[in-house]
Design brief:
mainly alpha; 2 helices; Transposase; plasmid
């Protein structure tokens, strides 16, 4: 299968990397304004 040829990738890290290149997350908004501090996390590998 093709999936056997691909390296295992953490989805969260992949999305963070893609966002760093494209900025796609800027197009999303949170229903609560301003966004609570607990929901802002700069990196999945770092504690919020």
């Amino acid at each position: 299968m093709i999936s056997d040829l691909l390296p295992p990738v953490d989805l969260t890290e992949l999305l963070l990397e893609i966002n760093a290149h494209t900025g796609f997350a800027d197009e999303f908004f949170h229903a609560v304004k301003p966004v609570p501090e607990l929901m802002i996390c700069p990196s999945a590998s770092a504690p919020c």
